[in-house]
Structure formats: C-alpha cells, structure tokens
Specification:
The complex is a heterodimer of chains A (about 210) and B (about 240). Chain A is α/β, with parallel strands linked by helices and about 210 residues long. Chain A is about 35% helix and about 20% strand. The radius of gyration of chain A is 16 Å and the shape is globular. Chain B is an alpha/beta fold and about 240 residues long. Chain B has one domain: 3-Layer(aba) Sandwich (Rossmann fold). Classes of the chains: A alpha/beta (about 210), B alpha/beta (about 240).
Chain lengths: ~210, ~240
C-alpha cells in the first residue's frame, strides 16, 4: 500500500513511518524541510496542483494535521486545519484516493465534566482556543467529503501523545491504532476515540478496540 | 448605537447602509475606499489587527464580507474573517454580531436535494462546495465563540436577491429569493432586539420573501426578529397568461 503521511516533522510521523515501512511504501510530507531517510516531499498543501501531485498514486493518506512548531500561531492553526485540510480532501477526491485517516484530538471534550463518560456519539464541544477549535473545524471539513461519498474518512481522536495525564496516549499505541485503521474497512465516516489504558482513563476506548482489533 | 460593517461596499452592503442610516452611527469598512458620508476605514477581514482596530468603540458588528471562487481568498475571507471578527468582538466586549452568508452555509446540497420546509436550525451540512464550506466553517467559528463568551451571534442566510421593481421572470422562480430592500430591512431588528429574548447566543435566520414553494422556511425570522418581508414577488412564480 502507498501511504502518504503529513506533518512529517513530528515524532509521531517518524515513529509511524518506521513502523509502516516494513509493509508499505511510505512518503512523508510537511510544510517545512525535514531530514529523514524516508521519501519526503516538502509541500505547502496549496490549491494550484501541488497537493494533487503529492497525493497521486496513494492508497491512503494519514493526515496528522500538526503544524511545525516554528509556524505555530492561532491564525495559522485555523488556516492549516481548514484550508489545507480542504486542499488535501479535494485532492484525494480528484485523484481517487479511497481512504484518509484524519488525526483529531480528544481535547474537543476538554470543557466537559471530567466525570462524564464521553463516547464517540457525543457532540464535540471545542473551546475558542485555537488548537481544539481548529481540530474540530478539520473534522467538519473531512466529514463533508465523507458525507458526499467522495472519500472514506477514519477520524481518530487521539489523547495527549506522550503525556502523563488521564488522557495520555503513548506513541506506540498511536502508531498501532493508525496501522490498524489503515488495513481495516469501515463506513464512509467513522470516529474513534483513542487513548492508552492508563489508570482512571478519561475516555472509554471500547469502540476503537472493537473496530480496530487493538 | 455604533455599528461597524465589514464588507460594506459589496452587493448587499450599500442596501444595508441605506436601511440603517439615521438609526445608528456607522463605521464602514472595505478593501477599497469609496465616497460615503459615514466614517470609512480600509480593512481586509483576513488581517486580524485591522479587524480589531475597526471594531474599537463599537456596540455591534455586521459582517457582510464574502469571497466565492478563489480557494485561498475564500478561506481567508469566509473562514478566517469570522475568526478575526469574533476575536475582535470578544477583545472589545462587543455583545452583538450579525454574520451573513448564503443559505447553504447551513442548509447545503444534502438538504436541498431531498427535503422540504427546511428551517435554519438543522444541523449544518454545507457540502464540499468551496463557497458553502468556507462560509460554513466561519459560522461554526461564530457558534463556538458564542458558546464560550458573552457575544451573541445572529446569522442571516440569503441566496438570490432581486429588485422589487424587476418584473422579469427568468431565473427568479426560486424559493430563497428576496428583494434587496426586504433583505436590508432585516438588519435593524437584529441590531435592536433584546439579546436576552433570543433562544440562545447563536441563532440562525433564513431571510427570504414569503414564497409558496415550501422548500425553505422563513418563519423563525418573522417570529423572533419581527421582520416582515413586504415584497411578495408573485410574478416570479405565477404563469404569464395570454390576453
């Protein structure tokens, strides 16, 4: 399987590409230059054909949707998750890419009572902080493409990667979830909550375990 | 009351200005300067600092800015513009924002293809159309800010406009049709309604003439805002009989 991974500079993309490279042909991309042994294409994810060229020939796209640290600002976060995600989804449709995995965040539920048993059927409640709001808008964008049956989207809402709180998600578990999602069929739009089995874990992950066989 | 209008010199802007003159103090903004007796500022809504400066000292914001076909600018204006405007409203403690967009900001192709009596409170499904989705994302930003701040957002949805004295028929037998003067008359009620009487801090309204199509519903705008479209435009949906 040919797999494109965005946000190639992140620790998650490096770990993911290392794991997937055993069975798949992996290409990394990012908005900035990245030193890597993998195939890498620097791409602004714009709308003038560069994103179509980037995704051409892929069987799946893993959109980690994480801005490089040096580019982060509130405005850039919103722009990246909306416009660039739209460009990726648009290109995926144009190039007949059957599956996009969008990495969202369980921070969409940060404003909920921590005692609530929040599952995938709950409506997202992002705050006005740019990071969770932008992730929600990225989901919103992907969902419209899935609704039109243009591209199948698996939306993985990740806990705090390498964090140590009650939403912690180890990189190993994150990699495992994405790897399983790549080879698992499903509906045009599917949301799964993913965090590690830590003590007093805030979010139940039964659905992800069942669907992905984790 | 002091009101800033972003995108004041587009298609709808001049009609809204005319409808509000004499009722409120206006600060008009747009990309280019133009002749007006009102205070004028050059503002690109994708520029957060310019948006914030233009909102200073205002009691309400009207966002008429819009860009349709260009992918980068559509997101800059329709999505980022809303983000900048809502942040400016919060920063200056401005309690009232009227955001605007096409009906498919919320009631997009998935509804229009299949349903009737479509109201503005349906879950948003703008579709992947660039104009619709970039506006839909902007409206979601407005909603999230309204849920987490003291700002109230009234979102007015329009689609096809015409002049009240335009008696031509071609292309006007459309359910979401309104005259410029009826559309612009909806803004004063939005600026004067007691915000505490609104059902929530973010309310969406369909603004179109009383039409017999029953495809969409404008009932909420009439009930809550007290707005009444005057132009029925019956000639646009009745047959021309030969004499």
């Amino acid at each position: 399987m040919n797999v494109l991974i965005t946000s190639g500079k992140t620790a998650l993309s490096r770990a993911l590409s290392a794991e997937l490279a055993n069975e798949h042909k992996v290409v990394l991309t990012d908005l900035v230059d990245v030193e890597t042994d993998c195939d890498f294409v620097k791409c602004e994810l714009g709308h003038e054909g560069e994103t179509e060229a980037l995704v051409q020939g892929m069987d799946a796209i893993v959109h980690l949707a994480e801005l490089p640290e040096e580019l982060k600002s509130d405005e850039r976060e919103i722009d990246f998750q909306t416009r660039c995600t739209y460009n990726i989804m648009h290109a995926a449709r144009e190039e007949n890419i059957p599956h996009v995995i969008y990495i969202s965040s369980l921070s969409l539920f940060e404003s909920c009572d921590p005692n609530w048993n929040v599952t995938e059927v709950w409506a997202p409640r992002p705050t006005t902080e740019s990071a969770p709001m932008a992730r929600y808008l990225g989901e919103f964008t992907c969902r419209e493409f899935a609704r039109e049956h243009s591209v199948r989207v698996t939306c993985l809402r990740f806990g705090d990667i390498d964090g140590d709180g009650d939403t912690a998600l180890t990189i190993e578990d994150a990699v495992k979830a994405i790897g399983k999602a790549l080879v698992t069929g499903g509906p045009m739009w599917q949301v799964l909550h993913v965090q590690s089995d830590v003590e007093n874990a805030r979010f139940p992950t039964n659905q992800a375990k069942q669907v992905l066989g984790l | 009351m002091k009101v800033v209008i972003y995108g004041s010199n587009g298609q709808l802007g001049p009609h809204v200005v005319k409808a509000l003159e004499g009722h409120v103090e206006l600060r008009l903004t747009d990309l280019e300067p133009y002749d007006t007796p009102h205070e004028m500022m050059i503002v690109d809504v994708s520029d957060p600092d310019a948006v914030t400066r233009a909102a200073e000292g205002m009691d309400a914001i009207i966002n008429l800015s819009v860009l349709r076909p260009h992918r980068q600018i559509a997101f800059d204006v329709n999505t980022m513009g809303c983000y900048n405007i809502m942040r400016a409203a919060v920063a200056h403690g401005i309690p009232r924002v009227i955001n605007t967009g096409p009906h498919f900001t919320v009631q997009g192709a998935p509804y229009e293809a299949l349903d009737y009596n479509i109201g503005p409170d349906v879950p948003p499904k703008p579709s992947t159309n660039l104009y619709a989705l970039s506006k839909g994302l902007g409206q979601e930003i407005c909603r999230i800010f309204a849920e987490h701040s003291d700002v109230y957002v009234l979102c007015y949805l329009f689609y096809i406009f015409c002049y009240h004295d335009d008696l031509s028929r071609p292309g006007l037998n459309r359910p979401f049709l309104v005259t410029w003067r009826d559309a612009s008359a909806a803004f004063l009620p939005g600026l004067t309604i007691d915000l505490k009487t609104l059902p929530s801090q973010c309310e969406v309204f369909n603004i179109f003439a009383n039409r017999p199509h029953q495809k969409f519903s404008n009932e909420k705008a009439k009930r809550i805002l007290g707005w009444q479209p005057k132009d029925g435009l019956a000639h646009t949906y009745t047959k021309e009989t030969k004499k």
